[in-house]
TrEMBL record:
The lineage of its organism: Bacteria, Bacillati, Actinomycetota, Actinomycetes, Kitasatosporales. Residues 1-16 have a biased composition (Basic and acidic residues). GO terms for molecular function: catalytic activity. Residues 1-31 are annotated as: Disordered. This is AB hydrolase-1 domain-containing protein. It comes from Streptomyces antimycoticus.
Amino acid sequence: MSTGDRLVRGRAREDGGPVVESARGDKDSPVVVTRRAAGDPGRGRVLFLHGLSNSSSVWDACVEQGRRTGGPEMWAADLPWRGRSVAGWSARGDLVPYMGDALRAVPGGAGVVVAHSMGANVLMEFLARRIEEGLDPFTEFGVHGMVLVAPFYRRAAEEFDWASLAYSVDNMAPLIAEGIRVHAGDRVSGATRRHLAERIRDWVGPYGWMRFFEIYLRTPALRLGRFTVPCLVLAGADDFAAPPAEGRALADGLPDAEFRLLPDCGHFLMIERARQFAALLDRFVSTCSAVRPHGGPGLGFPWEHDR
């Protein structure tokens, strides 16, 4: 089965923006891609990808900023590692091929792909596999640029040890609690956040966490010089899960990349610094769109793209 077989032709909804649905058309489908904002046709297109145990709602603040300023067309994917579904899908095996379903689902090509945390790592691993097969995934999926938000990356296999594995496991629940805090603010007490975080950690389970960590372990093998599109790597200065130094090292290894460190925020910088994040994204997308016009190559689906 090819990566595209899991997500077949969907339908576009014309009232308030189309929804791309899987053949099952329900919330339990592995990949569901939704157009979140019609945007300005001249300002490019964006596809958002979330991290482990999150969902497309992690991009709500950024999408709202884009709507206010008339930014690019915005699409967001809900992926197999979202919410409570991650354990079931992870237990079935490799999650990386599902990335092709998300990229294929955007009519006219994905444009600039904005990927957070595990989503960034799955994206890079997927692209690397396609390149190893002798393919050009950037043309294949219409990817004009990438924004890698709080990615995990190490240059050498020797940088991984038992301490790094234990650190990742021990900080999973605190990271989830941090996500709850930035989403809910003071509406949820510290004790409740910790309780919810432990429940979500248990939903993810060993299979979900292992799917993340095995992709992280493969980052030293990424041949970054083959990632030929412009890239923007963003990190939060206070991120205790994905250290900013790893984002900087990743940007240093990419042939055309800029690294930006956002102050006074952590792993969820697109929420904590939504206005600054949206401004950086808009500038980057505009630059990419000037080089590769809106509506570039990409497989997409054969429906009309309503405006």
